[in-house]
Protein backbone atom coordinates (compact mmCIF):
# COMPACT_ATOMS: atom_id res chain seq x y z
CA UNK A 1 0.00 0.00 0.00
CA UNK A 2 1.35 3.47 -0.85
CA UNK A 3 0.22 6.51 1.06
CA UNK A 4 -2.04 8.93 -0.83
CA UNK A 5 -0.33 12.20 -1.84
CA UNK A 6 -2.57 14.36 0.39
CA UNK A 7 -1.84 12.15 3.37
CA UNK A 8 1.82 12.65 4.19
CA UNK A 9 3.87 10.16 6.16
CA UNK A 10 4.11 10.70 9.89
CA UNK A 11 7.20 12.50 11.14
CA UNK A 12 10.15 10.41 12.24
CA UNK A 13 9.52 8.50 15.44
CA UNK A 14 11.60 5.80 17.00
CA UNK A 15 9.91 2.46 16.31
CA UNK A 16 10.15 -0.67 18.42
CA UNK A 17 9.39 -4.31 17.64
CA UNK A 18 8.98 -6.78 20.48
CA UNK A 19 9.24 -10.43 19.41
CA UNK A 20 7.37 -12.61 21.90
CA UNK A 21 7.54 -16.36 22.34
CA UNK A 22 6.08 -18.69 24.92
CA UNK A 23 8.72 -18.93 27.63
CA UNK A 24 11.09 -21.42 29.06
CA UNK A 25 12.87 -22.09 32.36
CA UNK A 26 16.04 -20.16 33.24
CA UNK A 27 17.96 -23.43 33.77
CA UNK A 28 17.40 -27.14 33.20
CA UNK A 29 16.86 -27.95 36.87
CA UNK A 30 13.70 -28.91 38.72
CA UNK A 31 13.52 -25.65 40.71
CA UNK A 32 13.67 -23.45 37.62
CA UNK A 33 11.21 -25.66 35.75
CA UNK A 34 8.82 -25.57 38.72
CA UNK A 35 8.87 -21.75 38.80
CA UNK A 36 8.23 -21.60 35.04
CA UNK A 37 5.46 -24.22 35.06
CA UNK A 38 3.73 -22.53 38.02
CA UNK A 39 3.45 -19.30 36.04
CA UNK A 40 2.59 -20.98 32.72
CA UNK A 41 -0.01 -23.39 34.05
CA UNK A 42 -1.68 -20.74 36.23
CA UNK A 43 -2.56 -18.74 33.11
CA UNK A 44 -6.32 -19.01 32.68
CA UNK A 45 -5.91 -18.76 28.91
CA UNK A 46 -3.90 -22.00 29.07
CA UNK A 47 -5.82 -24.06 31.60
CA UNK A 48 -9.47 -23.07 31.49
CA UNK A 49 -10.51 -24.94 34.63
CA UNK A 50 -11.81 -22.67 37.46
CA UNK A 51 -8.82 -21.86 39.75
CA UNK A 52 -10.64 -23.16 42.83
CA UNK A 53 -10.57 -26.63 41.24
CA UNK A 54 -7.32 -26.35 39.24
CA UNK A 55 -4.90 -24.71 41.71
CA UNK A 56 -5.04 -27.60 44.25
CA UNK A 57 -4.30 -30.08 41.43
CA UNK A 58 -1.50 -27.88 40.08
CA UNK A 59 0.12 -27.12 43.47
CA UNK A 60 -0.66 -30.50 45.08
CA UNK A 61 0.21 -32.89 42.25
CA UNK A 62 1.62 -31.45 39.01
CA UNK A 63 4.23 -29.10 40.49
CA UNK A 64 5.47 -31.93 42.72
CA UNK A 65 5.92 -34.45 39.93
CA UNK A 66 6.36 -32.82 36.52
CA UNK A 67 9.35 -30.47 37.17
CA UNK A 68 11.81 -33.32 37.77
CA UNK A 69 10.70 -35.17 34.64
CA UNK A 70 10.63 -32.03 32.51
CA UNK A 71 14.04 -30.88 33.85
CA UNK A 72 15.51 -34.16 32.64
CA UNK A 73 13.97 -33.56 29.21
CA UNK A 74 15.28 -29.98 29.10
CA UNK A 75 18.74 -31.30 30.06
CA UNK A 76 18.79 -33.37 26.87
CA UNK A 77 18.34 -30.35 24.58
CA UNK A 78 19.97 -27.51 26.57
CA UNK A 79 22.65 -25.59 24.64
CA UNK A 80 25.71 -23.64 25.66
CA UNK A 81 23.74 -20.46 25.09
CA UNK A 82 20.79 -21.72 27.15
CA UNK A 83 17.33 -23.04 26.42
CA UNK A 84 16.89 -23.54 22.65
CA UNK A 85 13.68 -21.50 22.57
CA UNK A 86 15.30 -18.49 24.26
CA UNK A 87 18.61 -18.81 22.40
CA UNK A 88 16.93 -18.98 19.00
CA UNK A 89 14.51 -16.13 19.73
CA UNK A 90 17.53 -14.02 20.77
CA UNK A 91 19.23 -14.87 17.46
CA UNK A 92 16.07 -13.98 15.52
CA UNK A 93 15.94 -10.57 17.24
CA UNK A 94 19.63 -9.92 16.50
CA UNK A 95 19.23 -10.87 12.83
CA UNK A 96 16.16 -8.64 12.46
CA UNK A 97 17.98 -5.76 14.13
CA UNK A 98 20.64 -6.04 11.40
CA UNK A 99 17.96 -6.34 8.71
CA UNK A 100 16.12 -3.17 9.79
CA UNK A 101 19.02 -0.88 10.59
CA UNK A 102 19.02 1.97 13.10
CA UNK A 103 15.42 3.26 12.63
CA UNK A 104 13.79 0.21 14.22
CA UNK A 105 14.72 -1.23 17.61
CA UNK A 106 14.14 -4.97 17.89
CA UNK A 107 13.90 -6.70 21.24
CA UNK A 108 12.51 -10.04 22.44
CA UNK A 109 10.58 -11.32 25.44
CA UNK A 110 8.90 -14.40 26.82
CA UNK A 111 5.28 -14.65 27.97
CA UNK A 112 6.39 -16.75 30.97
CA UNK A 113 9.78 -16.43 32.64
CA UNK A 114 12.59 -14.27 31.31
CA UNK A 115 13.15 -11.82 29.74
CA UNK A 116 9.67 -10.67 30.72
CA UNK A 117 7.32 -8.69 28.50
CA UNK A 118 7.10 -6.01 31.21
CA UNK A 119 10.86 -5.48 31.39
CA UNK A 120 11.39 -5.39 27.64
CA UNK A 121 8.42 -3.09 26.93
CA UNK A 122 9.74 -0.70 29.59
CA UNK A 123 13.22 -0.90 28.04
CA UNK A 124 11.90 -0.08 24.55
CA UNK A 125 9.98 2.87 25.96
CA UNK A 126 12.99 4.07 27.94
CA UNK A 127 15.03 3.89 24.71
CA UNK A 128 12.59 6.36 23.16
CA UNK A 129 10.27 4.06 21.16
CA UNK A 130 7.00 5.93 20.88
CA UNK A 131 5.42 3.26 18.68
CA UNK A 132 5.81 -0.45 19.35
CA UNK A 133 4.75 -3.51 17.37
CA UNK A 134 4.03 -6.54 19.55
CA UNK A 135 4.95 -9.60 17.53
CA UNK A 136 3.87 -12.91 19.10
CA UNK A 137 5.75 -15.44 16.97
CA UNK A 138 2.88 -17.87 16.49
CA UNK A 139 1.87 -18.41 12.87
CA UNK A 140 -1.48 -19.91 13.95
CA UNK A 141 -3.61 -17.79 16.30
CA UNK A 142 -4.56 -19.46 19.58
CA UNK A 143 -6.08 -18.03 22.77
CA UNK A 144 -3.46 -19.93 24.77
CA UNK A 145 -0.52 -18.37 22.89
CA UNK A 146 -1.17 -15.25 20.78
CA UNK A 147 -3.95 -13.79 22.92
CA UNK A 148 -2.25 -14.32 26.25
CA UNK A 149 0.99 -12.72 24.96
CA UNK A 150 -0.98 -9.63 23.94
CA UNK A 151 -2.99 -9.71 27.21
CA UNK A 152 0.24 -9.60 29.21
CA UNK A 153 1.58 -6.66 27.19
CA UNK A 154 -1.66 -4.73 27.65
CA UNK A 155 -1.63 -5.54 31.38
CA UNK A 156 1.80 -3.91 31.56
CA UNK A 157 0.62 -0.94 29.49
CA UNK A 158 -2.30 -0.52 31.91
CA UNK A 159 0.25 0.51 34.53
CA UNK A 160 1.95 3.17 32.38
CA UNK A 161 0.98 6.83 32.68
CA UNK A 162 2.43 7.60 29.22
CA UNK A 163 1.84 4.62 27.00
CA UNK A 164 3.58 4.05 23.69
CA UNK A 165 1.31 3.54 20.69
CA UNK A 166 0.79 -0.16 20.02
CA UNK A 167 0.09 -2.49 17.12
CA UNK A 168 -0.01 -6.28 17.15
CA UNK A 169 1.21 -8.74 14.50
CA UNK A 170 -1.69 -10.79 13.10
CA UNK A 171 -1.45 -14.56 12.69
CA UNK A 172 0.35 -15.49 9.47
CA UNK A 173 -0.68 -19.13 9.00
CA UNK A 174 -1.63 -18.64 5.32
CA UNK A 175 0.72 -15.83 4.39
CA UNK A 176 2.58 -16.59 1.13
CA UNK A 177 5.81 -15.34 2.75
CA UNK A 178 5.46 -17.92 5.56
CA UNK A 179 4.40 -20.78 3.29
CA UNK A 180 7.26 -19.93 0.92
CA UNK A 181 9.81 -19.90 3.76
CA UNK A 182 8.52 -23.26 5.03
CA UNK A 183 8.72 -24.77 1.53
CA UNK A 184 12.32 -23.56 1.08
CA UNK A 185 13.34 -24.83 4.49
CA UNK A 186 11.59 -28.22 4.26
CA UNK A 187 12.78 -28.92 0.72
CA UNK A 188 16.40 -28.07 1.64
CA UNK A 189 16.23 -30.37 4.67
CA UNK A 190 14.70 -33.18 2.58
CA UNK A 191 17.39 -32.80 -0.10
CA UNK A 192 20.09 -33.31 2.54
CA UNK A 193 18.67 -36.66 3.75
CA UNK A 194 20.30 -39.96 2.88
CA UNK A 195 16.90 -41.62 2.40
CA UNK A 196 13.61 -40.81 0.68
CA UNK A 197 10.71 -40.52 3.12
CA UNK A 198 7.50 -42.31 2.15
CA UNK A 199 5.49 -39.87 4.26
CA UNK A 200 5.94 -36.40 5.76
CA UNK A 201 4.18 -35.50 8.99
CA UNK A 202 3.30 -31.91 9.85
CA UNK A 203 3.05 -31.96 13.64
CA UNK A 204 1.41 -29.01 15.42
CA UNK A 205 1.18 -28.44 19.17
CA UNK A 206 -2.14 -29.82 20.41
CA UNK A 207 -4.96 -28.06 22.23
CA UNK A 208 -8.01 -29.32 24.08
CA UNK A 209 -10.72 -30.31 21.55
CA UNK A 210 -13.12 -28.08 23.52
CA UNK A 211 -11.28 -24.92 22.42
CA UNK A 212 -12.10 -25.75 18.79
CA UNK A 213 -15.76 -26.20 19.70
CA UNK A 214 -15.70 -22.86 21.55
CA UNK A 215 -14.48 -21.08 18.41
CA UNK A 216 -10.70 -20.88 18.71
CA UNK A 217 -9.42 -20.75 15.09
CA UNK A 218 -6.18 -22.60 15.93
CA UNK A 219 -7.15 -26.03 14.56
CA UNK A 220 -8.44 -24.62 11.25
CA UNK A 221 -5.36 -22.43 10.84
CA UNK A 222 -3.04 -25.42 11.42
CA UNK A 223 -4.90 -27.44 8.82
CA UNK A 224 -4.77 -24.57 6.33
CA UNK A 225 -1.01 -24.13 6.82
CA UNK A 226 -0.47 -27.83 6.13
CA UNK A 227 -2.74 -27.77 3.07
CA UNK A 228 -0.96 -24.75 1.59
CA UNK A 229 2.49 -26.16 2.35
CA UNK A 230 1.50 -29.50 0.80
CA UNK A 231 0.17 -27.71 -2.31
CA UNK A 232 3.37 -25.65 -2.56
CA UNK A 233 5.49 -28.80 -2.30
CA UNK A 234 3.26 -30.85 -4.57
CA UNK A 235 2.75 -33.64 -2.05
CA UNK A 236 0.38 -34.56 0.77
CA UNK A 237 1.35 -34.04 4.39
CA UNK A 238 -0.10 -35.99 7.32
CA UNK A 239 -1.36 -33.48 9.92
CA UNK A 240 -0.97 -34.50 13.56
CA UNK A 241 -1.13 -32.83 16.99
CA UNK A 242 1.49 -33.38 19.70
CA UNK A 243 2.28 -32.68 23.39
CA UNK A 244 -1.01 -33.75 24.96
CA UNK A 245 -1.36 -32.43 28.51
CA UNK A 246 -3.95 -33.50 31.08
CA UNK A 247 -6.96 -35.76 30.87
CA UNK A 248 -9.28 -33.86 28.54
CA UNK A 249 -9.71 -34.91 24.91
CA UNK A 250 -7.15 -33.10 22.74
CA UNK A 251 -7.06 -32.46 19.01
CA UNK A 252 -6.45 -35.60 16.98
CA UNK A 253 -4.79 -37.49 15.46
CA UNK A 254 -2.00 -37.55 18.03
CA UNK A 255 1.54 -37.39 16.62
CA UNK A 256 2.86 -40.28 18.75
CA UNK A 257 -0.06 -42.59 17.85
CA UNK A 258 0.34 -41.90 14.12
CA UNK A 259 4.12 -42.36 14.20
CA UNK A 260 3.76 -45.72 15.90
CA UNK A 261 1.06 -46.88 13.48
CA UNK A 262 2.93 -46.11 10.25
CA UNK A 263 5.39 -49.06 10.11
CA UNK A 264 2.42 -51.46 10.41
CA UNK A 265 0.99 -49.81 7.27
CA UNK A 266 4.17 -50.34 5.31
CA UNK A 267 5.61 -46.86 5.90
CA UNK A 268 9.07 -47.36 7.37
CA UNK A 269 10.73 -44.10 6.27
CA UNK A 270 9.34 -40.78 7.55
CA UNK A 271 10.24 -37.14 7.93
CA UNK A 272 8.52 -34.88 10.43
CA UNK A 273 8.31 -31.09 10.52
CA UNK A 274 6.70 -28.78 13.10
CA UNK A 275 5.49 -25.72 11.15
CA UNK A 276 3.64 -24.15 14.12
CA UNK A 277 6.83 -23.55 16.11
CA UNK A 278 8.83 -20.54 14.95
CA UNK A 279 11.82 -21.83 16.91
CA UNK A 280 12.97 -25.27 17.95
CA UNK A 281 12.28 -26.00 21.59
CA UNK A 282 11.66 -28.79 24.06
CA UNK A 283 8.54 -29.91 22.22
CA UNK A 284 10.36 -30.37 18.91
CA UNK A 285 13.91 -31.34 19.93
CA UNK A 286 13.02 -33.71 22.75
CA UNK A 287 9.46 -34.84 22.07
CA UNK A 288 9.78 -35.23 18.28
CA UNK A 289 13.46 -35.58 17.42
CA UNK A 290 14.37 -37.84 20.38
CA UNK A 291 11.25 -39.57 21.68
CA UNK A 292 9.42 -39.57 18.34
CA UNK A 293 12.37 -41.23 16.65
CA UNK A 294 12.68 -43.84 19.41
CA UNK A 295 9.03 -44.83 19.28
CA UNK A 296 8.94 -44.91 15.46
CA UNK A 297 12.00 -47.19 15.31
CA UNK A 298 10.66 -49.35 18.16
CA UNK A 299 7.44 -49.78 16.16
CA UNK A 300 9.40 -51.14 13.19
CA UNK A 301 10.35 -47.98 11.27
CA UNK A 302 13.74 -47.92 9.52
CA UNK A 303 14.48 -44.23 8.79
CA UNK A 304 13.34 -41.13 10.66
CA UNK A 305 14.27 -37.49 10.09
CA UNK A 306 13.26 -34.48 12.13
CA UNK A 307 13.31 -31.36 9.93
CA UNK A 308 14.22 -28.19 11.86
CA UNK A 309 11.93 -25.20 12.44
CA UNK A 310 12.47 -21.93 10.56
CA UNK A 311 14.57 -20.61 13.47
CA UNK A 312 16.99 -17.82 12.43
CA UNK A 313 17.58 -19.16 8.91
CA UNK A 314 17.90 -16.54 6.15
CA UNK A 315 14.45 -17.51 4.79
CA UNK A 316 12.93 -17.11 8.26
CA UNK A 317 14.42 -13.65 8.81
CA UNK A 318 13.43 -12.52 5.31
CA UNK A 319 9.86 -13.66 6.00
CA UNK A 320 9.66 -11.99 9.43
CA UNK A 321 11.03 -8.79 7.92
CA UNK A 322 8.21 -8.77 5.34
CA UNK A 323 5.51 -9.48 7.94
CA UNK A 324 6.83 -6.84 10.33
CA UNK A 325 7.42 -4.15 7.68
CA UNK A 326 3.81 -4.57 6.58
CA UNK A 327 2.61 -3.76 10.10
CA UNK A 328 4.99 -0.80 10.41
CA UNK A 329 3.49 0.78 7.28
CA UNK A 330 2.46 4.37 7.94
CA UNK A 331 4.77 4.45 10.96
CA UNK A 332 7.87 4.46 8.82
CA UNK A 333 9.34 7.52 7.16
CA UNK A 334 9.90 7.29 3.40
CA UNK A 335 13.60 7.22 2.51
C1 LIG B 1 3.03 -23.37 19.38
C2 LIG B 1 1.91 -23.34 20.07
C3 LIG B 1 1.63 -23.84 21.41
C4 LIG B 1 0.36 -24.13 21.88
C5 LIG B 1 -0.94 -23.99 21.14
C6 LIG B 1 0.51 -24.61 23.23
C7 LIG B 1 -0.54 -25.01 24.06
C8 LIG B 1 -0.40 -25.63 25.30
N1 LIG B 1 0.76 -26.08 25.92
C9 LIG B 1 0.47 -26.66 27.12
C10 LIG B 1 1.39 -27.23 28.03
C11 LIG B 1 2.78 -27.22 27.92
N2 LIG B 1 3.50 -26.75 26.85
C12 LIG B 1 4.84 -26.78 27.14
C13 LIG B 1 5.86 -26.34 26.33
C14 LIG B 1 5.73 -25.61 25.15
N3 LIG B 1 4.57 -25.28 24.48
C15 LIG B 1 4.84 -24.52 23.37
C16 LIG B 1 3.95 -24.00 22.43
C17 LIG B 1 2.56 -24.14 22.50
N4 LIG B 1 1.84 -24.59 23.56
C18 LIG B 1 6.27 -24.34 23.34
C19 LIG B 1 7.00 -23.53 22.30
C20 LIG B 1 6.82 -25.04 24.41
C21 LIG B 1 8.29 -25.24 24.70
C22 LIG B 1 8.87 -24.44 25.79
C23 LIG B 1 10.34 -24.65 25.94
O1 LIG B 1 10.84 -24.28 27.00
O2 LIG B 1 11.05 -25.16 25.06
C24 LIG B 1 4.99 -27.31 28.48
C25 LIG B 1 6.31 -27.35 29.27
C26 LIG B 1 7.18 -28.47 29.06
C27 LIG B 1 6.69 -29.72 29.71
O3 LIG B 1 6.71 -29.81 30.93
O4 LIG B 1 6.24 -30.58 28.94
C28 LIG B 1 3.73 -27.60 28.97
C29 LIG B 1 3.36 -28.13 30.32
C30 LIG B 1 -0.93 -26.55 27.31
C31 LIG B 1 -1.67 -27.06 28.53
C32 LIG B 1 -1.47 -25.93 26.18
C33 LIG B 1 -2.87 -25.56 25.82
C34 LIG B 1 -3.91 -25.54 26.53
FE1 LIG C 1 2.67 -26.05 25.03
FE1 LIG D 1 5.78 -31.70 26.09
Explained architecture:
With 335 residues, this protein is an alpha/beta fold. The protein has two domains: 173 residues, Rossmann fold (3-Layer(aba) Sandwich), CATH 3.40.50; 132 residues, Rossmann fold (3-Layer(aba) Sandwich), CATH 3.40.50. The protein has eleven helices and eight strands. The strands form two sheets. It has a four-stranded parallel sheet, sandwiched between helices. A four-stranded parallel sheet has the order 6-5-7-8, sandwiched between helices. Strand 3, helix 5 and strand 4 form a beta-alpha-beta unit. Helix 6 crosses helix 8, helix 6 packs antiparallel against helix 11 and helix 9 packs parallel to helix 10. The chain is globular, with a radius of gyration of 21 Å. The relative contact order is 0.15. The model has no long low-confidence stretch (mean pLDDT 95). One fe (ii) ion binds next to helix 10. Pathway: Porphyrin-containing compound metabolism; protoheme biosynthesis; protoheme from protoporphyrin-IX: step 1/1.
Amino acid sequence: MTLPQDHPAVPARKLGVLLINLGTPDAADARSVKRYLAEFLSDRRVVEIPPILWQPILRGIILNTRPKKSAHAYGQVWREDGSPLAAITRLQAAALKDAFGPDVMVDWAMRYGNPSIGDRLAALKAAGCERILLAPLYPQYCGATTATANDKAFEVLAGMRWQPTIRTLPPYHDDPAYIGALKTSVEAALAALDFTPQAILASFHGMPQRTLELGDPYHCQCRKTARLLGEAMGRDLIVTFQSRFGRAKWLEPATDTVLESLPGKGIARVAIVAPGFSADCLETLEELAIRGRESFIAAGGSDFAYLPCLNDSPESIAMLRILILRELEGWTVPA
